[in-house]
Design brief:
The structure holds two protein chains of two kinds. Chain A has helices at about 1-30, 35-40, 50-60, 65-75, 90-125, 130-145, 150-165, 175-205, 210-215, 220-255, 265-270, 275-305, 305-310. By secondary structure, chain A is an all-alpha fold. The longest helix of chain A is centred in the C-terminal third of the chain and has 38 residues, at about 220-255. The chains are: A mainly alpha, B alpha/beta.
Chain lengths: ~325, ~280
């Protein structure tokens, strides 16, 4: 088991190198001169060629590509993610640390909403399949999967905040500010998970072990919860694990709709300001989150499933 | 004739699919006497499993079952779900054909035996444990304590099949249904499982329905044989009757094919001996 975990951890290293390289290259391919943008954001009145050259040197942009990449990776490993181009008094790490709690709060609330809603609804849909309840839910799932999050956000804002005047439209601070963005973020995930749990349960219901449990006269409730749901959750487990970084990354659009001061808002502002170090670090952070959560949930699943446990040891 | 334990009359099973209705079992009558082993013979899709599943209430809601099935003064086809659940596993027990997939892969053997006991008795944890060990010992499983802690994938097919038979017998059922219990097993394990069934018949005098497509297996355990083909019972009688004086052309073909295979087997065996 220990060996298996070590192997999995070592295997993530090449993956992380790839992620960091791709993320660095792509961001440097953005067609505009960050030095020029930096000068503009710093409100330098006249932008001369000398000034641009000076800023380039200051930001290290005059060095060749690979040297910059190597330098950046080395700095990252030391925990130094650089200094914001547009605001030299702030470090990138500081900026991210400032915005991260808000995003985690939003993503965490959404995750809880997703689990609390999709689990019982998916379960009931499978148990009462083809009933009117199942049909209505399936129709709603179909609709919400097709609706983009920002549109759902705007609709909710219009209905709940403006027409009904129940909740604030944007901003943060109190619990009531959190409700609308969290609901918006979780909406698409809820429909995905309802479908996943429903189909997984229906698939499990056809298995021999369900027939055999019935043969032995085990009460329905016990078969449904103790066997079918349990087996279905095992399959959903990894999907939920992968949804956590997805939720953190996926808040970008919704954060902007609701002016939520999290990572998403920071990222969009940085993109407009061509603030390379911030964007790079953000993309790297999300990439690393995906790798790490994938790793954690793979290992957890191996621990939880007796069949995989045997293979791993 | 001795006491009839299960009496099935005019059993008909059909399935509803996309507005159409297909009949799977036509108008079947048969009975099982006390202490008797009734063999149901037929190829896959002939409706033999369907017949017993319909009696036990194991079919989905889109199946329609009509007729009567009398067991201990109750018509099983008209009993409530809860009452059928109580009968299943205690009064009528069943052994399935795929032992490896019939246990929940995430649960230990002990918990799956325990839940069967919990469903039918009010024994406490200690008694359940005792009975579980006793069950495994009766099925001649070595180191029962260790086996209880195992997950299904850690045991062999024959072992799991014997555990399944053990669970079926633990509640001392009046009727034991074996649905192709030897099909998924290799020749040696098949023999072991068949021997176990014969011993049950001899020692416990449990009435049995033994479903199989294997003439060899059925000859070993069954007292009386029903032959099913395409949802109908086409022949009935002792093994000797079926083999020698079958009325139905399908049964004759089945017997002839089996004899041909045996002939071939003997020839090969003879050759092998000659060479030695």
């Amino acid at each position: 088991m220990k060996q298996y975990i070590m192997k999995r951890i070592l295997l993530t290293i090449p993956l992380l190198i790839c992620i960091s390289f791709v993320c660095f290259v792509f961001i440097n391919l953005i067609p505009s001169d960050p030095a020029e943008v930096a000068l503009r954001v710093r409100q330098v009145p006249v932008i001369t060629d000398e000034a641009i050259a000076e800023v380039r040197e200051e930001l290290g942009l005059d060095k060749p590509y690979l040297v910059r990449y190597a330098g950046w990776v080395a700095d990252c490993l030391r925990g130094d993610f650089g200094i914001s181009y547009t605001n030299p008094s702030r470090t990138v790490a500081g900026e991210l640390a400032r915005c991260l709690p808000a995003t985690l709060q939003l993503a965490g609330t959404s995750l809880i909403l997703v689990i609390l809603l999709s689990l019982p609804i998916g379960f009931l849909c499978a148990v009462y399949r083809n009933s009117w309840f199942d049909k209505i839910i399936r129709m709603l799932v179909f609709m919400t999967t097709a609706m983009p999050a920002y549109w759902i956000g705007l609709l909710l804002m219009w209905l709940v905040a403006i027409k009904l005047d129940l909740l604030p439209t944007s901003g943060s601070g109190t619990f009531s500010h959190l409700i609308l963005p969290a609901v918006t973020v979780s909406f698409t995930y809820i429909s995905t998970y309802i479908r996943l749990i429903r189909n997984n349960m229906l698939e499990n219901m056809k298995q021999d072990y369900v027939l055999y449990a019935n043969v032995r006269g085990i009460p329905q409730k016990k078969i449904l919860i103790g066997h079918i749901l349990r087996n279905s959750l095992h399959t959903c487990f990894v999907a939920i694990g992968m949804s956590i970084p997805q939720l953190i990354a996926g808040t970008i659009v919704v954060e902007n709709v609701f002016a939520w001061p999290g990572l998403g808002t920071l990222c969009i502002t940085s993109i407009f300001n061509r603030d390379y170090p911030v964007i790079q670090t953000y993309v790297l952070l999300i990439g690393v989150l995906f790798v790490v959560f994938n790793l954690i949930f793979d290992i957890l699943q191996t621990v939880a499933d007796p069949r995989l446990r045997k293979e791993a040891s | 004739m001795s006491n009839v334990i299960l009496n099935v009359k005019n059993l008909q099973v059909s399935v509803q699919e996309r507005g159409k209705s297909y009949t799977l079992v036509y108008d079947s009558d048969f009975c099982v006497n006390e202490g008797e082993c009734l063999g149901i013979l037929g190829e896959s899709g002939s409706g033999k499993s369907m017949t017993v599943k319909s009696i036990m209430g194991l079919l989905d809601t889109n199946f329609k079952v009509t007729g009567e099935a009398w067991f201990h003064g109750k018509d099983l086809l008209k009993e409530s779900k809860e009452s059928l659940r109580n009968i299943r596993g205690s009064k009528i027990a069943m052994v399935l054909q795929n032992p490896m997939t019939s246990f929940d892969p995430l649960c230990r053997i002990s918990s799956q035996i325990a839940e069967t006991f919990q469903a039918h008795t009010d024994w406490d944890a200690e008694k359940i444990r005792e009975k579980s060990i006793e069950l495994l010992e009766q099925m001649q499983i070595r180191e029962p304590l260790e086996v209880l802690q195992k997950y299904p994938h850690q045991l062999s097919g024959g072992m799991i099949q014997r555990i399944m038979v053990g669970i079926a017998l633990s509640m001392e059922p009046d009727l034991l249904v074996a649905d192709e219990p030897t099909t998924a097993l290799d020749a040696i394990t098949q023999h072991e499982v068949l021997k176990a069934f014969r011993e049950i018949k001899r020692e416990k005098k449990t009435s049995m329905i033994f479903i199989t497509h294997d003439l060899g297996a059925i000859s070993y355990v069954a007292d009386r044989i029903l032959v099913m083909n395409q949802g109908r019972i086409v022949d009935e009688g002792s093994f000797h009757d079926i083999l020698r004086h079958a009325k139905d052309p399908y049964t004759r073909m089945l017997a002839e094919k089996k004899c041909a295979v045996m002939e071939q087997y003997r020839r090969v065996l003879g050759k092998g001996r000659g060479m030695l």
